[in-house]
């Protein structure tokens, strides 16, 4: 008696598909409980939403424990905030009594009503050090107002002779004068509360009543005691900028040209634009998704269910971010649009199969089970690959890139969770009627079927030609990619016509800079700055970098404590310009420092500590490509290390932070590209189950990225912090369609053993969903082209075309590869 042959054991892929079918059946039977569970889970994140914060500062690009940021924080604690607001004024004549009266009125208004003010300097109160008999007097430059034309000429002569005023308070031709505003380093008590940066006040205009009230409660000095000291928040920075803009606006300055610039203004502009753009992008993406869903399914349920699922996923992802205490930053502004565009793809792949089976059978439960069993594994794998692409950012040295990686991955996992759990429950509850086929008309969309048939025929009949053309295109793209230039200048992100950018460029040109590089020298001994030898070296260093010129960087000014000392020395010698020099006697230097302190001025606090053991030297530079600063910083560091071998040297300020951001980004992107490639390749091999085909399947994933890099190189598009993201984002998204193609191709090929037939069946089924998800994804990124920001425009364009080319790659290259690789198997007996 012979035993009957045992049925072959299902492989792990079939087991997983059966598990998804069983899950669908369980959800169908417990749909109300499932909805309650999904709602309770979502509530955990929704309650965190009010805690969301915004940070668009340069410091926000670095992790809290980054050595460069720790050094910068130490500098701010000692010497205050180095990022100044600069108001540049170009009247018909600076040295005109009527203009100076207007300048005084504006100066006093700003002094009295600018919140969080630390200091304000203009020609009205600029330091004027002079000697009278044996006494040193430190007074305001306009302590005495000129009464006659002769007085005005003497005043002008005195201003032009003061080297500290040049390129600080006066342009070299005296056509411009400035008001320089320094805010406090520390936040006011209670600031930084949840929701900062997202309130209506933050987005609205700053009214007169607002700054009157703010000014009444703010006085110069350290933060009030009590509570933990934190640096000035993004919301407070915006409050300052809005107040300054409103105060300037209400003053009638006649024919005077007005320019307001500086790092705080740039930070505020980026924040305002980011929040406005996010709302714009989300509206475009939601509308696009709704249109494509309706065109594809022609059912309200086919629009409502996936939109509800993906919007809930987005809300939960943002809630998770808020609850984690992570601020919304410039790179992470793409998160909402990304989650919407990517998350809806999972629902589309399930709904395509669900509606097809439901229309055929009329059995909703069976259709839901079939849809999850058919597509569940594929969307699980696409989620893993997309998340893998983004998780490659999680170790980035640039903080918001790490945040983007973590929370984008969390967002796609949330979208997967709600697609697998909530979508079946919604489908089971929503009343849906099966559609009967019209007599004589085939199911589906005839035009799309004809189009996809033609696409399939190209790869089936001429796979060699497809692969040759693709190879030529890739080689040409590699040649173009070799010409890419890396660039990081946040000022160039702004629109060419924006007031903030025009003002910054004007001040950079006329006053030779709007930002600073700071050098801190620690002698390690009390009164180390009394040493004439040290002071002489410090003075020579200031002179060297005051006139520094190179092919990339031109310094606008350099100054240190020796400036104060020279002014004092001259004043004590009858105001004779011949004595504008550093005293060459230690006791005399100490005495002159003491006399200056006793004059009532606190200006020495800007240059040294209370023990006279540390010296600060500031170099003023314009906003340029951060990488161009790199060699300049190396030159500065080498000079001070050689000139002051007995002192500890620290190079800090906003300029080194900008350099740190872009160099860290380059390292992080190289690392993340490698991680993403390895992780996705491994997942592809596991899904397909064959090493060779798994490796080959990476070709259609990498091809669109290489072509995009080639376009950048040939078109002269510079690679910045945002365009660096394109590759890692694109590989995580491009692989999704490849997974769906390979998953279904393998299914159909195992059934028929005919590669050509399997390609055609794959494109006629999952190919339609791939087309829709690609359109939604690409338009989701093309939406960034509606931004006024140049960097976002290019990011959206490059990512959008990369995703579209990924579809073409999966429509042509992937089928051609499968035809070539499976020819031998088909012909073998």
From TrEMBL:
<feature type="domain" description="SSD">
    <location>
        <begin position="661"/>
        <end position="820"/>
    </location>
</feature>
<dbReference type="InterPro" id="IPR004869">
    <property type="entry name" value="MMPL_dom"/>
</dbReference>
<dbReference type="InterPro" id="IPR050545">
    <property type="entry name" value="Mycobact_MmpL"/>
</dbReference>
<feature type="transmembrane region" description="Helical">
    <location>
        <begin position="281"/>
        <end position="297"/>
    </location>
</feature>
<keyword id="KW-1133">Transmembrane helix</keyword>
<feature type="transmembrane region" description="Helical">
    <location>
        <begin position="406"/>
        <end position="432"/>
    </location>
</feature>
<dbReference type="GO" id="GO:0005886">
    <property type="term" value="C:plasma membrane"/>
</dbReference>
<feature type="transmembrane region" description="Helical">
    <location>
        <begin position="792"/>
        <end position="821"/>
    </location>
</feature>
<feature type="transmembrane region" description="Helical">
    <location>
        <begin position="695"/>
        <end position="715"/>
    </location>
</feature>
<feature type="transmembrane region" description="Helical">
    <location>
        <begin position="721"/>
        <end position="742"/>
    </location>
</feature>
<feature type="transmembrane region" description="Helical">
    <location>
        <begin position="763"/>
        <end position="786"/>
    </location>
</feature>
<protein>
    <submittedName>
        <fullName>RND transporter</fullName>
    </submittedName>
</protein>
<feature type="region of interest" description="Disordered">
    <location>
        <begin position="186"/>
        <end position="231"/>
    </location>
</feature>
<dbReference type="Pfam" id="PF03176">
    <property type="entry name" value="MMPL"/>
</dbReference>
<feature type="domain" description="SSD">
    <location>
        <begin position="304"/>
        <end position="429"/>
    </location>
</feature>
<dbReference type="InterPro" id="IPR000731">
    <property type="entry name" value="SSD"/>
</dbReference>
<feature type="transmembrane region" description="Helical">
    <location>
        <begin position="304"/>
        <end position="328"/>
    </location>
</feature>
<keyword id="KW-0472">Membrane</keyword>
<keyword id="KW-0812">Transmembrane</keyword>
<feature type="transmembrane region" description="Helical">
    <location>
        <begin position="464"/>
        <end position="487"/>
    </location>
</feature>
<keyword id="KW-1003">Cell membrane</keyword>
<feature type="transmembrane region" description="Helical">
    <location>
        <begin position="376"/>
        <end position="394"/>
    </location>
</feature>
<feature type="transmembrane region" description="Helical">
    <location>
        <begin position="334"/>
        <end position="355"/>
    </location>
</feature>
<feature type="compositionally biased region" description="Acidic residues">
    <location>
        <begin position="198"/>
        <end position="215"/>
    </location>
</feature>
<feature type="transmembrane region" description="Helical">
    <location>
        <begin position="672"/>
        <end position="688"/>
    </location>
</feature>
